[in-house]
Amino acid sequence: MKRLLPLSFVAVLAGGLSPIPAQAETAILAGGCFWCVESDLEKLPAVREVVSGYAGGTTQNPTYRNYEHGGHREVVKVDFDESKLSYGDLVAIFLRTVDVTDPGGQFCDRGHAYTTAIYPLDGTQAEQAKAEIEKAGKVLGGKVVTPVEAPAVFWPAEDYHQNYYKSDVRTLTRFGYVSRADAYHGYRKGCGRDARVKAVWGKEAYKGLPKAGS
To answer: Percent of the chain having pLDDT more than 70?
Structure first.
């Protein structure tokens, strides 16, 4: 389980989807550690913003301390320009950043909170997500366990989680007193995330994954 943070927490305000500007779309995706999904998808030129958060559970106002108990997953909300990238193509890219064959979590993070899922906002998104999952299964020659769930409320995570992967704020972690960015990179490499994705997907793996040794 990724627990690199000091024992200080910021209160979360009740979340919800922000107004969507013209030529923009929103996707809610669960791919294990939300720091990692945020990092991967923010590299896409068509993506305007990625926000880490929680979704899919029954509790209101989940926090990092209790979201797992309410049945939530770690997710990201992605706002992107649909004139440059379709929802289906975004889902296809997302699937190639995770291990879609693992029903028990992602990489070293285990449990429901870290499992993959797609939360469509409407029927059109649901159809496109299912189509991309079917294509992924054919590419891999096996079952993709990533579910397409019912629409869910998105709850933004605490402020310190946002842009964690590139923050220069220093904090005490298992890697010592280092920047959050350094802690993130140490965690990601130690968790074996990229090595596993490349093992699952081969040449189909998302090209924006960190190179070996980085």
So the answer is: 87
Quick one: which of 120, 119, 117, 169 has its CA closest to 144? 117
Query: Which of the four pLDDT bands, split at 50, 70 and 90, describes residue 17?
Result: very low
Listed in sequence order, the residues at least 6 apart from 154 whose beta carbon sits closer than 8 Å to its beta carbon are: 15, 16, 17, 28, 51, 53, 54, 55, 75, 77, 119
Q: Which of 33, 36, 108, 191 is catalytic?
A: 33
C-alpha torsion sign, points 195, 201, 206, 207: positive
The answer to whether the beta carbons of residues 29 and 94 sit under 8 Å apart is yes
Is the pLDDT at 16 greater than 70? The verdict is no
This prediction has a pTM of 0.87
Bridge partners, residue 111, by sequence: none
The identity of residue 66, as a single letter, is N
Which residue from 55, 56, 125 is spatially nearest to 89, judged by alpha carbons?
A: 125
Is 191 annotated in the active site?
no
Distance, CA of 160 to CA of 170 (rounded, Å): 11
